[in-house]
Write a structure and sequence with these properties.
Elements: E1 4-5, H1 8-11, H2 13-41, H3 54-86, H4 93-115, H5 129-151, H6 160-179, H7 192-227, H8 234-248, H9 263-275, H10 277-290, H11 295-300, H12 302-324, H13 327-333, H14 337-367, H15 374-407, H16 412-449, E2 450-451
Antiparallel strand pairs: 1-2
Helix pairs in contact: 2-3, 2-4, 2-16, 3-4, 3-7, 3-14, 4-5, 5-6, 6-7, 7-8, 7-12, 7-14, 8-10, 10-12, 12-14, 14-15, 15-16
Length: 456
């Protein structure tokens, strides 16, 4: 059987390019994650290789997950559904391709510079100034493309997914600029406590004002489509939108409860962290009632299955996050693996699963036929689901062991033997996720470029 290349990449170039971007960087990001987990088991694994030291590999892993995989994956879906919902063409595919090209240059630059030790050494804000400016420019291009598409629409009503996608890029652009202190290119930071406050305002809003709105926008588009039923409540969708924007923006300081920031700021952060139950509950009620009695349809559609699972992960991540903002809980969990587990269920479990679901949902739409292998997609689903769920459970347990030991005066090195087995399991689960990333890249590439149904 001969295989012929198809033209999806040329018909929907921005969508397909962001899709390939996400699937490629997921492989690199998860490989770096497995390498990090292995270092915790065998610290001498890369001894003497400076560019593979833990302190350099970790920011590569974090930035590639955030900006290399999840964000492009969600943007791929957004570039597909926004023109569909507005009943118009994307304003400029050429502008979209320029954005994708520059985005990949930034990601490649991030890998090279961070492994070379060139960093601004701030959580989620490690990239050097030139890469910061290039990424901000990418957001400006996306804002321009989205805004002009909205302006030229023929559909008078703006469905909530458009609200979320546009808000995500509009709010993240200036937030990224503030958090990375771009007006100080030499340092990329302020001094003392003001820098810590600004950093965590940005650090948490990367999740709250970028990944979360983009993921929710995809869910609001895919679930009603898969279920073949209207959204349960448009009023609830807008209530969730505005409550998310109002509540989430103030919670970053709950990372600084142990440092001398103003007490009133800590109180606001804790109260709003607990108040996150409002936008989360509104969203989940809306999505789950839309899917009520439609689980068969969701299970039959691999994209819908990924997205729906992501909403369940969102529930657990949000409950855990609200609890971890409480001072009495933080006494045990802060600076432990428990926090790392929370980050993984939030980023990979919630927004990552929804990003993959969005990709698998739009692939048949842009190629005009089913994905290359439903079996491989299902296999990837279970690898990542088991990997992320196990990861969260294992790291939560290990974190509680660390936290209670330290609270009772135990030294760090004496706790390490107690959590060694958990680190071995952690690396094994990471290998499952990495395997899922490889399978996903192969499946997506074959779906985009080759059609086994065509013969010469």
């Amino acid at each position: 059987m001969n295989e012929k290349p198809i033209t999806a990449l040329f018909k929907y170039p921005t969508v397909a390019s962001f899709c390939l971007t996400a699937s490629f960087w997921l492989i690199v990001a998860t490989f770096m994650g497995v390498l990090l987990a292995t270092m915790l088991i065998a610290p001498d694994l890369v001894e003497g290789i400076a560019w593979l030291s833990y302190g350099r590999v970790r920011p590569v892993h974090v930035n590639l997950v955030l900006f290399g995989f999840v964000t492009p994956g969600l943007l791929s879906a957004a570039f597909y559904y926004i023109p569909r919902l507005l009943r118009t063409e994307l304003y400029s595919e050429k502008l979209g391709l320029i954005t994708v090209g520059l985005w990949n240059i930034v990601m490649a630059g991030a890998v090279v510079t961070l492994l070379n030790g060139q960093t601004q050494a701030r959580e989620y804000a490690e990239l050097i100034w030139s890469l910061d400016m290039a990424l901000i420019f990418c957001f400006v291009l996306i804002i321009l493309n989205f805004a002009l598409t909205v302006i030229h629409r023929t559909e008078p009503l703006l469905y909530v997914s458009v609200w979320y996608a546009c808000a995500a890029v509009v709010l993240t652009g200036p937030t990224y600029a503030l958090g990375n202190v771009i007006w100080q290119p030499d340092k990329g930071a302020l001094a003392g406590i003001p820098d810590a406050i600004l950093l965590w305002f940005y650090g948490h809003n990367i999740f709250g004002l970028l990944l979360t709105p983009l993921a929710i926008g995809v869910a609001y588009y895919v679930i009603p489509k898969v279920c073949k039923s209207p959204l349960y409540s448009h009023t609830l969708s807008l209530l969730g939108f505005w409550s998310l924007i109002v509540v989430y923006t103030h919670i970053g300081t709950h990372h600084l409860l142990q440092v001398p920031v103003p007490t009133w700021l800590k109180v606001i952060a804790i109260v709003d962290s607990v108040a996150m139950v409002i936008p989360v509950s509104v969203f989940l009620i809306n999505i789950w009632y839309t899917a009520k009695s439609k689980l068969g349809e969701i299970h039959a559609d691999i994209g819908g299955k990924f997205v729906f699972t992501g909403t369940i992960m969102y529930f657990f991540a949000s409950i855990q996050g609200s609890m971890m903002s409480l001072p009495q809980v933080q006494r045990v969990t802060h600076f432990t693996f428990h926090t790392v587990g929370h980050a993984h269920i939030g980023v990979l479990g919630f927004s990552g699963m929804i990003a993959l679901g969005g990709l698998y949902y739009i692939l048949p739409k842009i190629t005009g036929r089913p994905i290359y292998s439903r079996f491989l997609a299902d296999f990837q689903y279970w690898l990542i689901l088991i990997g992320v769920t196990g990861f969260t459970i294992i790291l939560s347990i290990a974190g509680l062991i660390q936290g209670h030991s330290w609270l009772n005066g135990e030294t760090v090195y004496r706790v390490l033997p107690q959590i060694h087995l958990y680190n071995v399991i952690r690396a094994s689960l990471g290998l499952m996720i990495f395997t899922g990333a490889l399978i996903g890249m192969y499946n997506i590439f074959r779906t985009l470029f080759y059609n086994p149904e065509e013969t010469s």
